[in-house]
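Hi support team,

I submitted a single chain yesterday and got back a structure, but I'm not sure I'm reading the token output correctly. Could someone confirm the output below corresponds to the sequence I sent? I've pasted both exactly as they appear in my results page.

Thanks,
R.
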Amino acid sequence: MSAQSGVPARVTAVDIRREGDDALGIDWADGSASVIPLREIRLACGCAVCRDELTGAPLLDPATIPTDIRAYRIAPVGNYALTFDWSDSHSTGIYPWEMLRELAERTETQRP
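Hi R., thanks for writing in. Yes, this is the structure output for that exact sequence:
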């Protein structure tokens, strides 16, 4: 467990950083590090504009997200998530650490 009561170290971020213009680096309390492409983070948005509130089904068409999407601002949401201001003018999503860790693991296994 991490210093945050009851939160596993696996999903506790200790550092975040930009990795060039197109990725986010996260160091986790369990000693591992992840690099997640920003486009993958944007595609994973769970807000009501991007996902059906009742079913969770994606509403966002991936073809509408530019391959060179940028994050103009990355900010913490309490101790549990990040929020982004995206270059496509989207800014309503909240990205919990647990979701970011799962996304990191999924995208890292898909890399050649």
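A quick pointer for reading it: Strands lie at 13-19, 23-28, 33-37, 71-77, 81-86, 94-96. Let us know if anything else looks off.

Best,
Support desk
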